[in-house]
């Protein structure tokens, strides 16, 4: 078992300030009103608070959501929690499942998978670009509770090494090219989830899924609309994320 | 370990036809074009198909999503997968966590929780109305892979028996009344998720959370927008679910 | 000036009941709780009410919105008010403008245009299918206050007869084919609005607009989300219109 | 007739650059790549273009949308075109109508109204804060084609001077207080539209409408979702306006 998740704290301050800090690395953490040393931070109990220049800050153990949104280093567009959560549900991920993924990207969804399949499960993830591969490894090890991720530094177009996988998640530029390889790697009736940003990619992917015998269960986008948490003047935020990606879900038909 | 999930099959037919069948119960299953016996259905391999009156039907092992949406008996409004998935993410649920819930309702979210915390985790759920309590028990046992749910037939206003819970999910009519009890049951910095259908309830709940020292991390609604899976004429469905519920997330502050 | 709009009444009843009636046609109007004769209806003052079997009904002069949504005969998908309103704004329609349209369809948007450009303005509308052409004429004359619509029973691919139009609204299956003709009919810097249901059509239309020198100012969809008007339990409707159409707006570049 | 609208030009440049310029005021207009004098700009025909440092810019006569979004001076939150367009439709505004409004704010919706009711119509608008009143007058005269707006520098709580209005639009902080005055000013069955930013205000307003005998036809919010106009990679913008306001529509019941 990794311990990365135990070494991160999230600091909550005024006006939506949020910062994730690794308390094992001695450093000065700048705040909107002053600063705090990471060693002092480590002394604060979970849910406790401290004061800097008359302003109170709360400190929590960092959770997966905050780690991904506020700490994880990104070289690529990550899979947002709103999308990642729905993909986990649609791929029927639960403890013990064996799941494939390509590309790894910055490792955000790999981390969600790792946290969901637990010690009995396994995640096999493929990333062909070496710098992403290395970054993702670091990002995953920096938080996941479970030692269950196998990272491959190769393209899945060159072959998926595993067989009989419960589910596969695909997030590459031309997903239609990878469908035949994924078909080989999935067990019968295995779940497939694909994420693409454009409508043109959705159309191309749907054609490939039909050709390679996948049942398409859903094409969907998820919108998260946040509200200002003010009980006397309740209203949505002025601005919201308008688009991250379309998601396509299906299951393998036939042998 | 339960085996409920192994005994359900989902049949996929033309024009969006979808039906979940328990193959251990001998019965005739009606289809848009004819019928099939559940015993014949049991012989079809995962991802296989059969033909009824010249129309092909596909058969898959039932997943959690299809079980909740197309099989589970409902006496109450259930927590939809789009919302349930996001709640699991925001409550930071993973294998091994100990989670509380009230009310159980028809048990849909209890089932998501059970499937997410696995054999090492535990779900404690409270439901005061006896008929829902019994229905939920049946719904959960009919599918969950894990024997990890403790059901209480009582109101949480009469006290939560557990302590030091990692997270709590609240889905009752007047959530503001239950906040003090939940505060006692949660561990320091524990996660709280609340689901309510109306804006008035959001406002009341926010007031109670402030009073009882919870940090509110997010007030949000999740919209899932489905597309017709036709590559040459890609477009969203004509109608969509416009509203299920608002969700409020927070963490316990102080001891 | 037509008088069609003066002869229609809308009856509002319990549980969202709404019915538009022509009071010049003697008939019995069925209600959820009984009925009323159109001649009796004609006697009720604007904003007045009547009682049928102990239930109160309100009567208003019919407005454009109710006429289009609850009276106008449809052979085609109409332009919804939410979209029509935005198109009027984006095409900069005001009294006195000369505007072209194709196809007329059932005439809903033609009616919005007629009501917006007034006595000093003019609307030229093209519809090649004779049955739609006739239906639309009847629909428009049945309500518009202004005698300002010229209907053509022909395809615009065979030529637009007018020149120097302020704006053009295009709602046909393959809009990309009509762009060159519209270019000839519009005045310099004239406004163009196009409505299409699929993403594939948006892509094709954008290509044609670039080729034929139109500046694209916006590609947009409009979502209207309704709420239940209950002050103590304020919340959106359970279901909503998920999609009607995408809209593309532009202006003619060069001479 | 005013001529304000004839003196404004909109310049369209690369990366979404858009600027509205008054060509009667000699000045140097800064661009992303250089500049142009407003006097040179005045020579460019509608839909024409000019080049600044190898980059092409297009020039159009300014329309109402661009004037409101890119020129009009704001001291207040304005009514966005997406909302304004729908309000015009729901209030059944057409040439010749007599319409009231409060408060005037920066005059954006007053301008929409002025442009919609034309020479035969009339707009009566109330604004109690003198600096907004003056700003709005300037904003309206700077563009509207029609001399049809009467501005009052007073609160409508002190009385509306007009009677028998076709419609009224209300955009003040506590709309519930103004309902009785509006009731007096509207003709029988007259249309009322109210805009409020928070859910609490929606609830308060609904109570007042019921008390003062208005039929509520709709409570709604309008979302405009923009797409990047790239045919090969069609997708919505990353960010969108998440909320402007809720709108409530109704009609006066009884005398």
Automatic annotation (TrEMBL), chains A, B, C, D:
Task: Tell me the superkingdom of the source.
Answer: Bacteria
Gene Ontology cellular component list: tRNA (m1A) methyltransferase complex
Top-level EC class, please?
transferase
Which controlled-vocabulary keywords does the entry list? Methyltransferase, S-adenosyl-L-methionine, Transferase, tRNA processing
Q: Which GO terms of the molecular function aspect are on file?
A: tRNA (adenine(58)-N1)-methyltransferase activity
One Pfam family hit: GCD14
Please tell me where S-adenosyl-L-methionine binds in this chain: 127, 171
- Known catalytic reactions: adenosine(58) in tRNA + S-adenosyl-L-methionine = N(1)-methyladenosine(58) in tRNA + S-adenosyl-L-homocysteine + H(+)
Q: Which InterPro entries match?
A: SAM-dependent_MTases_sf, TRM61_C, tRNA_MeTrfase_Gcd14
A single BP term in Gene Ontology? tRNA methylation
Q: What does this protein do?
A: Catalyzes the S-adenosyl-L-methionine-dependent formation of N(1)-methyladenine at position 58 (m1A58) in tRNA.
Q: Could you say which protein family the record assigns here? A: Belongs to the class I-like SAM-binding methyltransferase superfamily. TRM61 family.
Quote the subunit structure annotation.
Homotetramer composed of a dimer of dimers.
Q: What is this protein called?
A: tRNA (adenine(58)-N(1))-methyltransferase TrmI
């Amino acid at each position: 078992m990794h311990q990365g998740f135990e070494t991160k704290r999230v600091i909550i301050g005024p006006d939506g300030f949020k910062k994730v800090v690794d308390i094992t690395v001695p450093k000065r953490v700048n705040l909107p009103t002053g600063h705090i040393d990471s060693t002092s931070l480590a002394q604060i109990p979970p849910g406790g608070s401290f004061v800097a220049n008359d302003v109170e800050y709360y400190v929590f153990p960092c959770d997966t959501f905050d780690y991904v949104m506020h700490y994880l280093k990104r070289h690529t567009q990550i899979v947002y929690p709103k999308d990642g959560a729905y993909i986990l549900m649609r791929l029927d991920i639960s403890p013990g499942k064996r799941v494939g993924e390509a590309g790894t990207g910055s490792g955000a969804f790999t981390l969600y998978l790792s946290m969901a399949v637990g010690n009995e499960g396994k995640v096999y993830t493929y990333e062909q670009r070496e710098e992403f591969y290395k970054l993702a490894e670091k990002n995953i090890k920096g938080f996941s509770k479970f030692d269950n991720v196998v990272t491959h530094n190769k393209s899945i177009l060159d072959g998926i090494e595993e067989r009989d996988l419960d589910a596969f998640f695909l997030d590459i530029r031309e997903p239609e090219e990878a469908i035949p390889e994924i078909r080989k790697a999935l067990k019968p009736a295995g779940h497939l989830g694909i994420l693409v940003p454009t409508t043109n990619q959705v159309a191309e992917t749907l054609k490939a899924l039909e050709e390679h015998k996948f049942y398409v269960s859903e094409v969907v986008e998820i919108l998260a609309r946040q509200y200002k948490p003010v009980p006397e003047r309740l209203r949505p935020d002025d601005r919201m994320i308008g688009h991250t990606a379309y998601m396509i879900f299906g299951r393998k038909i036939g042998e």
